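INFO worker-7 received task bundle
INFO bundle size: 2
INFO processing item 0
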Amino acid sequence: MKLLLHCCCAPCALSCVSSIRAQGIESELLWFNPNIHPYVEYNARLECLRKFAANEKLNLRLINEYGLRLFLKEVYRGIDETGSVSERCERCYSLRLEKTASVAAAQGFTAFTTSLLISPYQNHDAVKRIGEETAAKHGVNFYYTDFRPLFRESRTAAREMGLYMQKYCGCIFSEEERYANKNLTRRRRVHGGD
C-alpha cells in the first residue's frame, strides 16, 4: 500500500507514523494546513514537521500556502452568530482532506489518512465521514485508524524529542477561544467564581 498521511503537526504525526510502520506500511507526509494562524504559528509547525520528517527519513510533500483567506472563505459559511464550531470545523476538515485526497489520487497513492484522527479534541466521527466521502469522490481509499489511544504517548514522546508543542488547534477561532477561556478562568479566580 502506498499511503499519504496528512499531518496537522509533528506531535500528532509522530505516533500515527509509528503505528502505521508497525503494520508494515510506509507512508509519505503531506503538509496542507491553511487554517493555521498566525503566520508565526504556521511556520513553527511547518519547521517542526520538516525536522521530524528528516529525522524519520520520511518524504514530506508541501503545499506551502499560508492560506488564511482561503480558510476564512471556506469556513465563514459555517459560523453563526454564536460562533458555533460544528460546521466551521467540518468545513476545515473538508478543505484539508479534499486536498489530501486529490494529491493522493493524482500522485498514485493507494490510500490516505490524517493525523487529525489522533486528537481527542477533534470531531472524530466527522473526520472519518469526510475522509471516506472525499476518498470515494477521488477514487482512492481512506485508511481509517482510531489513533486516539496513542494521543498521550505521542505528546510525551514529542516533548522528549523537543518538538514544538502548540496550545490550540491552529485556527484563528480556536486561538480566540483559547484566550477567552484563559480570561474567564482568570476572572473566576479573581472574583470567586462569577
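INFO item 0 finished
INFO processing item 1
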Amino acid sequence: MIFIASDHGGFELKNKIINHLEYKGLSCKDLGPYELHPEDDYPDYVKPLVDKVLVKPDNRGVLLCRNGVGVCMLANKFKGIRAVLSWNTKHAASSRNDDNTNVLCLPVDYIFEEEAINTVDVWLNTPFGNAPRYLRRLKKGNL
C-alpha cells in the first residue's frame, strides 16, 4: 500500500500525485490534509504516515512539503523508516536500489509537477538491489 501526506505547502501536488496513482490502478491512501489549511504543521501528518508504513514491509510512503527537509528529518527519527529527500528519477532510483528507502519526500518548491510524478513512479517501481554490500550497510546502520 502507498500512503501519502503533506502539509499545506504540498497539498495541491499531493492531490495530483494521488490522482495519477489511482489512474494507474495503484492502491493509495491519502492521510491528509483533506482541506487546505495555510497554518497546518507537517508533524501532524508525518507521524500517521510513518505508523502506516511500519505496519508491513511492503508499505511505502510519500511526504510533501515546501523544501522536503522537515518531513524527511522527522520521518527518519522513527526506527524502521528510511526516508529520502529526492528531486529526480535518477536519485530516487538510487535511493531504492542502494538503500531500500520506504518513504519518499518531495520538495514541492524545487520540483516541477511532471518531474515529481515521474520521480514517484520510478521510486515505486525500483526494487531494492539486495547486494551484499547494501545489506551490510543497512545492518550496520540498524536500518
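INFO item 1 finished
INFO post-check item 1: The CA atoms of residues 98 and 133 lie 9 Å apart.
INFO post-check item 1: The chain is about 45% helix and 15% strand.
INFO worker-7 idle
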